[in-house]
């Protein structure tokens, strides 16, 4: 699977923020922003010959492993934003992709970096990139952050835990919990008073395992200082840690 020599190196999409994509303040949610990032990534991968339709011929699918999103400002209902995305490299197992969200005047709304791998749908095991990825990138490819994403630390204690039962609406087309749903679960665990007073500046996530229909899930956080949290999501039946994250917040007045 190799892209043609004249492939589009930086993919661009324009989106409008709709009423059903905003929170109680009328601003796009972090889940909305992540959904738009993934939509643009999917479109670019299809253009490169590395998309869902191409990998399915080998019985492969993409899996998001790690993600870091840093937000400068949140677009509001009715705003138009541009999402740019481009691949930044690969190694033996992982492929890397970065993003930038901008307003029409060019000012940056958010930047993000992601790490992906491909699994076989039957064996559910990661596949070597050499089996599907022959994309040649320029040597001076831009990255929005200086370093690759690493494994996050887990919680040492739990300040709050909420139980959730995976239902039909949580599932993606592969019948596992959609990765954006984990972000929504994390956000929904935080107190309303805190959410009204602070805004999310940065979220970093490790996706570590899968959750399926009917699973009972524990979503927990540990507060680390005034405006920082560690989060984890665990499947209760076998105590498997499915996801871990950290969030950094700023006061609305700063």
Explain this structure.
This protein is α+β, with helices and mostly antiparallel strands. It contains 4 helices and 10 strands. Strands 1-3-4-5-2-7-10-9-8-6 form a 10-stranded antiparallel beta sheet. The mean pLDDT is 93.
Number of separate structural domains:
2
Write the CATH architecture name of the largest domain. Roll
State the CATH class of the largest domain: Alpha Beta
Strand-and-helix sequence, N→C?
Answer: EHHEEEEEHHEEEE
Strand content: 35-45%
Unreliable residue stretches = none
Largest sheet: 10 strands, antiparallel
Number of strands: 10
In short:
With about 250 residues, the chain is an alpha+beta fold.
